Amino acid sequence: xxxxxxxxxxxxxxxxxxxxxxxxxxxxxxxxxxxxxxxxxxxxxxxxxxxxxxxxxxxxxxxxxxxxxxxxxxxxxxxxxxxxxxxxxxxxxxxxxxxxxxxxxxxxxxxxxxxxxxxxxxxxxxxxxxx
Length: 131
Hints:
Blueprint: H1 2-15, E1 25-31, E2 34-43, E3 47-55, E4 66-72, E5 77-83, H2 105-123, E6 127-130
Antiparallel strand pairs: 1-2, 1-6, 2-3, 3-4, 4-5
């Protein structure tokens, strides 16, 4: 998982020109009707916290990916800390559990983030706006 988080950090740096300025919001479109917003929620000397969410009025909210990611600038890693508004994600879960989390849920959401970042970089966002 450490390698995935390191790759995610480098991909974030490719997408965000300035990831250490608080309350900046980047909106971009990767395809017709497929827009995303990356908002910098918090920025400190060694960490930044960003929100990543899909913006599409035609899709119900439960189908739109949204996550909170912490970027560790000293370790050069990016880790998903919350996904789909479910709160903090544990390193691993016993199975079965009351919320039906997968045993390796944290790894799965970080791999999803890696795939999403790769998708966005490959398509080279058509529009990138600071809001």
